Amino acid sequence: VPDEDTMELALSSDRFATLDLERDLNSHSSAYCTMQALDNKARVTLFNACSNPVKLSTMINKRFKLLHIYAEIIQVKSEMSGEMVNAPRVILIDDHGQGYQAVSTGIYNSVKRIISLFGNPATWDAPHTVEVQHVDLKDGQHTFNLLVID
Question: Would you say 69 and 92 are in contact if contact means Cβ atoms under 8 Å apart?
Fold first, then answer.
């Protein structure tokens, strides 16, 4: 949901924060979640989607209905330097409560674009169908991207 004063995307959770990758990585923000887990059934769905997600890499060229997004900053070992660095861990939750996880700046950026164009998933009339794409980068690197199919 855009904040009218700053036009930044805001979280739909108890903590009000913005979805800005550079700031998130530098400020160690904890998490972003579009699902309002107000009852025990919703909490169980969210917990299970985040605790036992499918790797998004197994979903390349496959489609699912995106219902909610959970994102957090985690520490990972840099392939380049070998040092621990912050990275976005994104879990996409489908209309059946299944989570799909990626530690991917590409997916994080896709999520930012989806929210900026379609709004917070909690406000959607229906889930959007998305397709996972594998994108080759320079020097043998790769990332993932989402296409909205509707």
Answer: yes
